[in-house]
Every structure is written in structure tokens, then in C-alpha cells.
Amino acid sequence: MARPEQVLVLEPQHELKFRGPFTDVVTATLKLTNPTDRNVCFKVKTTAPRRYCVRPNSGIIDAGTSINVSVMLQPFDYDPNEKSKHKFMVQSMLAPYDMTDMEGVWKEAKPEELMDSKLRCSFEMPLENDKTTEHSTLPKSASASLDDGEVKKIMEECKRLQMEVQRLREENKQIREDDGLRKRKVTPVASPHSSSMATSAMRDEGLSTRVLALCVLFFVIGVIIGKLAL
Question: What confidence category does residue 145 fall into, taking pLDDT thresholds of 50, 70 and 90?
């Protein structure tokens, strides 16, 4: 004997869509509506129970009411070339008028009393335009033009320049230490004018090194801003 037609109305009817990125839990909502004048028992099953968390996965839908089922996909490594083979099935049956134990009702249910609907799953990554909307804190041109390779190059260039700045700072420190050592070796008969000139030279040398370091930092900022403005 053929099974009766599903009395519940499913939204969506045939496919659950999960929208990435899939580095965190992604939730799809399945709405179940009971248009009949009878209460309906339901269960939600899947071919990949370890990959999904369904809440609620079973229950009773009162006559003329609806319920939202949250289907939560666990994080995984997304491969665009791999098609999802996961499927869901919504199983239902009219609730007996004298029902007291729902689990017992399912165990005692006859095959001809059960109704079911099947849904397939699909995974999709957001488009570039959607990424721009989601990351509204970034300029539109930046989120559309910067890819992972460009970002990596910028970070490597920034790291290299930071190391150069650090090297200049160490050289500047070494120069100050050497100047201090030479100053201590200078004889007391040195004229005040020559001492003043040595001090001025040290200041100028330290200042020029700091100016160079600032120029390097401004160059880093200019590179990053230039990339974002492309």
C-alpha cells in the first residue's frame, strides 16, 4: 500500500541551502506548517547526523500552526568541486487523539500511516558583491580588488620594512654608544666650542636616523593605502 501524501507544508520544499564561509556554524531554517485540523507528529532525519545539529528534531505541530526548525551545519573545509550528497527527510504522521507517549506512537506506527518529504542540501560561497556588503567596514573597492595573494604581499613588505626600521634603530643606538665612548676619551683640554660641535653632530645624526625611520613607516602606510585604493 502506498504511503499517504505529506500533509505538512515545507519551506523550502526541496532544497536546504547553506551559505558560507564554512569556518563557523552555518544555519538554515526549515519551516513546517500544519494546515490540517489535526495535530501532526514530525521527525527530521539526515544521512549525515555527525555534520548537522537539528533543533527541534521532533515534536508535535498543532492544527493550523507552524514551527521553525534550525538546521546547523558544523564547520568543515569547503571544496567547491565537491557536490553535497547530504539529504534530509521530514517524517510525519497524524497524532492520535489519545496520545500520551510520542516515542511509543512512533514505535507502534504502521508504514501506511507515515508520510515523508525529502530535501537535498547545497553549499554555496557568497559572491564578491555580497562580501562587500557583509564587510561594510572595508571600502567597496578594497573588498572587491584585494585577494589573498595581494594581502600576503602587502604583509610581507610591511614586515620587511619593519625589520629595516628596527635595524636602523639598533644602528642609531650603537652610534650613540660609540659617540659616548669617544666623548669619555676626549681630553679635558677640549675647547667648549669643539664639545658643542660634537654634541650638535650627534643630535643631527640621531635626528636624521629618526627621520629616515619615519619615512620608512610612511612608505609602509602609503603602500597599504595604495593597495586599498586600487
Answer: very low
Which residues face 162 on adjacent strands? none
More confident residue, 79 or 140: 79
DSSP 60: E
CB within 8 Å of 150: residues ≥ 6 apart: 227
Per-residue pLDDT averaged across 3-18, rounded?
Answer: 94
Between CA 179 and CA 76 the distance in angstroms is 60
> What is the C-alpha separation between 154 and 229, in angstroms, rounded?
13
Helices then strands (H, E): number in the chain?
A: 5, 9
Q: pTM value?
A: 0.55
CA distance between the termini of the chain:
66
Cβ neighbours of 18 (radius 10 Å): 19
Question: CB under 8 Å to 206, separation ≥6 — which residues?
Answer: 172, 175, 176
CB 121 within 8 A of CB 82: no
- The C-alpha cell at 80 is 567547491
The three cell numbers locating residue 157: 613588505
Q: Looking up cell 589573498, which residue turns up?
A: 148
Average the pLDDT over each of 1-5, 153-157, 186-190 and give the range with the smallest value.
Answer: 186-190
Phi then psi for residue 90, to 5 deg, are: -100, 115
**What does the chain come to in residues?**
230
Q: Which residue has 507515515 as its cell numbers?
A: 114
